[in-house]
Amino acid sequence: MAYRYLWSPLQLGPVEVRNRIVFSAHLTNYARNGLPTEQHAAYYAARAAGGTGLIITEEHSTHPTDWPYEKLIHGFHREVIPGYRRITDAVHRHRVPIFAQINHNGGQASSMYSRLPVWGPSPVADPLFREVPKAITQAEIDEIIAGYALVAEHCAEGGFDGIELQCSHSSIVRGFLSPATNHRTDDYGGSLENRARLLVEIVAAVRKEIGRGMALGVRICGDELIEHGTTVDDAVRIAEIVEATGHVDYINTSIGVATASLFMIEASMHIPPGYAMFIPSAIRKAVELPVVGVGRFKDPLQAERALSEGHCDLVGVVRGQIADADFVAKARAGSTDETRLCLSCNQECVGRMGLNRWLGCIENPRTGRESEGVGAVKLTTKPKSVMVVGAGPAGLQAAIAARRNGHDVTVYEKEAVAGGQVRLAASVPNRAEFGDMIRNQLTECRRLGVEFEYGVGVWPGLVEEQRPDHVIIATGAEPARPYWVPDDADNVADVRQVLDGSVEPFGDVVVFDEIGFHHATSTAEVLADRGCNVEIITPGMVVGQDLGITLDMENWWIRAGEKGIVQTTDLVPMGMEGHTLNLLHHPTGTNYTRTPDWVVLAVHAHPVEWLYNDLKTAGVSVERVGDCVAPRRAHAAIVEGERAGSSV
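Now predict its structure.
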């Protein structure tokens, strides 16, 4: 059998999982007023229907002092139980077990929402929240332990099959375990055994509350990646202590600290898959308990290999199942080519969470809107002929949605291949996975029977000749030169021209970053790799400022330093005279100049809207999607394509 390790069942205490793939805990921002919602139930149910072996929910807060972000489930209120029941009933219909992760974030939190001081083992401020926690007393430790037991009681009443204690990347328990944040001199500080005392006491309290009828797991951090933090050797010893309690049924793993080294927890495509496997591998050698491994698993083959090589007993696949709820079912059916592979772009999952929005997916418009029926088949009784102009992400998604509902769809693309700007973005080293978006869409188009005409530019006469019932325009956007570039400047290029090879800058190159995303930084790396001396200039406070949202900033800084890329902020171009670029330092009003061989522009594009306007004027049934409406990022193209195609 293909993937024979993946499909073998496993016992976690009283709970049997049918396969080894876990939809591990992750934040969703679906809660409202501290309560779980119908969207939670629909979201988890979709992954259960897709065949995952085990679901572990996002964290449930165990105490009123723990409110680090707005849309957190307050598990300490009994009002959560009906919502728990909706979630567990929805998942159990598909014969999949579901565990609840419970947690107190400790000092990795803010008093913004609770108006209470945050609690921690010692008064050590978190580098992100920058709030000094109150070192908790013995009485407050007892209160914390009681809070875990209370939430476990609520979860049991809510129908969950097990409890997972989050003691890994953002937890008061992690704070106690780590010598970086635990400076206590009482029985809860000092030696590792003392630092683990709170964990052991919580384990005992929760097990006493839930009995032996529910599973109990502990998620620990294998390497905090901070100075004086927990190391893998510490994690192995913690796992041995946990196992010795006799109360725990499995151990889950993690890497990094959610605020200090978050970019290694939810790693982007610049970090190789399976990068954290050394942690479960080391722990599994030391304990008999089943161990869960995590770390950017994109496809079933990677998960199977981790199991077959003995690194772990189960594999956490989160973003892979966010992108495709049927990830497991497709693997079991041998249809892995049809899997919508995660891009690890972090734009709509991690990125939306960082902006306090609900979790979605850049390439799956259904994710985060399962309860609304987005992406469902609505087969028409009156099929129409639909012409889609442009085979970028917007056009392809429109074609998929329209064809899924039974319409006859033909996509016209002036280039010889599909992809548009995504294809260019994926041509950059270490960004190739972004191209999976187009691969995934083309695979779905082939499965549905969408027709393609490549190398064909569309004009009103062709539309009149073909006489489609409806036209969807997805012609994208084109480079635009800003006002300060002279018309006769022959040493100025757009980032697209660099990436498609039509222009080859050399020597000293200034890349002007007006967009603040991968456009400038990726192109700068390409140029540096070709031997250019590169300086990125931006009017913003940070080069590539939005890279922080997708957790790409830290590694960009490392690569930029290695390649000698200079980053200069707060400069606004005022004009060019020959090769001289005149710049204004806007905070001080100081003028500067640069005399590069080339200037490369990462600036806002201009929508290609003439075809839409002409067809609209001619009375054709037409709408437009993506950058030809307004140049934005790929998620907007996907959302608009889905909306347009499904409403034909």
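The longest strand covers residues 54-61.
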